[in-house]
């Protein structure tokens, strides 16, 4: 009985293991943001490249600048709303490699 008490006393003194990478919500959020913004940014950039300029009512350089800003905002909003579905399996593979 004395050895059981020693074991339980020593077990209480052991440090708690650090949280796994999979349990880190800040890492998951950063990963989702990076994957989402990269994917959607490239998608919008390819869409804008294939879209021709209209013959009339084109705003010139100012329109191009504001279109880039609009694309940045769209990319951020799209990644906030649906990047976890896209990057979920990628995140799982990423955390398995770090173990």
What does this structure look like?
This protein is mostly helical and 99 residues long. It has one domain. 77% of the residues lie in helices and 0% in strands. It contains three helices and no strands. It has helices at 2-13, 25-50, 61-98. Helix 2 packs antiparallel against helix 3. The longest helix has 38 residues, at 61-98.
Number of helices: 3
Anisotropy-based shape: elongated
Distance between the amino and carboxyl termini: 38 Å
Helix content: over 70%
The secondary structure category is mainly alpha
Mean pLDDT: 79
> What are the secondary-structure elements, in order, as H or E?
HHH
Strand content: under 5%
Which segments are poorly predicted (pLDDT under 50) over 5 or more consecutive residues? 14-19
According to DSSP, the number of beta strands is 0
The Cα radius of gyration reads 24 Å
Number of domains: 1
Query: Could you describe the largest sheet, including whether it forms a barrel?
Result: none
